[in-house]
Write a structure and sequence with these properties.
Elements: H1 25-42, H2 45-56, H3 72-75, H4 80-100, H5 104-112, H6 127-140, H7 143-149, H8 168-177, H9 183-211, H10 230-239, H11 247-257, H12 263-275, H13 281-296, H14 309-323, H15 333-340, H16 344-357, H17 362-376, H18 385-400, E1 405-411, E2 427-433
Antiparallel strand pairs: 1-2
Helix pairs in contact: 1-4, 2-4, 4-5, 4-9, 8-9, 8-17, 9-18, 10-18, 11-16, 12-13, 14-16, 16-18
């Protein structure tokens, strides 16, 4: 079935009749969205691509034209921003459907439509065509198009010239939370981000299993991190703390003990909780001092009130801001202090402890990681190795503490070392998939 054979549809021509300019823009937009939502469910991807191209691209290569091509007629009364919003939403209506049905190669083709050489030709003799082409060129050179390209990075080799490509899942989280984005874009971003994180968790578990087995080939499962074989030692350090004093158990005790506290008391409690048993005591003391100054002066007008679930969440989110970026634009002083001193794991564990007491802060944290990535993307990988190292450790730590997988250390041989220091080489890491993960 083709788009033109749909009941009541005449393809993209349906939207560019001579009366289009008189149509209310919102009504015209809804007709376009409904049209694409229908054909993407009923028609082959090739037909959908053809109809999309007819709406937004066909006609822009005409050297002379006195008519407004495609969908541009709806917006030609100097409304470029509404055109761009419509173009974006149309893309994500299609992407959402193709993501669900695993038609990933067609998402690539959709994004590639905008790289057509016809869109890059010189100025024509038609002022109308020139205006339409400038609108599309502006979109192609915008952050909106960069956001769109994130949806084709999943099946491509990592572009090593741009280190941020490794961390697409966080950039997608930022998209999913941006209220200026359409519902379709937010849903698509959330879905793909989750898929990327699940893929990382699976690959990490498989790599760990294979790399510790002499009978298995380590080449079958590639290390998804860039930390090399050191990742095994790191994982052992992270999962070492078990039993009654595990991070999860202490988090549970904290939540129970702070239920009836005032906001002021809660601020003191969360400070003690986060910095309890932090290594590198001298640095921890400096960080804690700055942290206390920030938290104690925040929302002082609520200090005498009892802590509520809403304020619990707000506090945890604000604590995350103190440790990452307070304004969503540049890194916080505490973030720089911890990482510049070479302590990424310390910061990651503190952030983990926040999420263990407030699961709903996870998306806020990941959005803040995205903001940091956007800030540092102007620097080369060599210039911000410490930031990259932090994100890699963050990825691994939160994969280990995922709801649907459990890691354990099992002692495989007697420790012959007489020193007090634990010999992690005597242990192996085992992962186990949980059958009923918590929601």
């Amino acid at each position: 079935m083709t788009a033109n054979s749909l009941p009541g549809s005449q393809g993209y021509q349906h939207f560019v009749t001579s009366n289009s300019r008189q149509l209310n823009v919102e009504i015209a937009q809804e007709r376009v969205y409904s049209f694409l939502a229908d054909i993407v469910k009923q028609c082959p991807p090739e037909d959908v691509l053809r109809e999309f191209k007819g709406l937004f691209i066909d006609g822009l290569d005409s050297p002379n034209s006195d008519y407004v091509p495609g969908i541009y007629g709806i917006f030609f009364e100097d409304n470029e921003q509404e055109f761009r919003n419509t173009l974006k939403r149309c893309c994500y209506i299609i992407i959402n459907n193709w993501e669900t049905n695993r038609k990933h190669k067609y998402i690539q083709e959709l994004v590639n439509l905008f790289t057509n050489n016809n869109l890059r030709t010189e100025t024509t003799n038609s002022p109308i065509i020139n205006t339409c082409k400038s609108w599309l060129d502006n979109f192609i050179n915008s952050n909106d198009y960069q956001d769109l390209k994130l949806f084709v990075a999943r099946d491509k080799e990592i572009d090593k010239s741009c280190w941020t490509n490794r961390y697409t899942s966080y950039l997608l989280v930022a998209q999913s939370l941006n209220e200026n984005n359409s519902r379709e874009q937010q849903e698509a971003a959330k879905k793909l981000s989750r898929q990327i994180k699940d893929k990382f968790k699976f690959e990490l578990a498989m790599y760990i299993a294979r790399s510790q087995s002499a009978a298995s080939s380590t080449t079958r499962y590639k290390n998804p991190s860039i930390l090399g074989d050191n990742v095994l030692h790191l994982i052992k350090v992270i999962v070492l703390k078990k039993g009654g004093f595990s991070h999860k158990n202490i988090a549970h005790i904290f939540v129970q003990q702070t239920k009836n506290q005032s906001v002021e008391e809660f601020k003191e409690s969360i400070t003690k909780y986060l910095f309890f048993s932090v290594e590198h005591q001298e640095l921890a003391k400096r960080v804690k001092q700055q942290f206390v100054e920030k938290l104690s002066s925040w929302k002082t007008e609520h200090n005498e009130e009892f802590i509520t679930k809403e304020f619990f969440l707000r506090t945890c989110n604000r604590v995350i801001d103190f440790l990452t970026t307070e304004n969503g634009k540049e890194p916080s002083s505490l973030f720089i202090l911890l990482l510049s001193q070479g302590n990424p794991l310390t910061l990651v564990i503190i952030l983990l402890k926040i999420i263990l007491i407030c699961r709903n802060s996870r998306v806020h944290l990941e959005a803040r990681i995205a903001h940091l990535i956007y800030y540092y993307e102007k620097y080369s990988a060599d210039e911000c190795k410490w930031v990259i190292n932090f994100i890699e450790i963050f990825n691994i730590t939160f994969a280990i503490y995922a709801d649907n997988v459990e890691y354990n250390l099992i002692k495989m041989e007697e420790d012959q070392n007489c020193n007090q220091q634990l010999n992690l080489d005597a242990y192996r890491v085992f992962s186990q998939l949980k059958t009923n993960p918590q929601k």
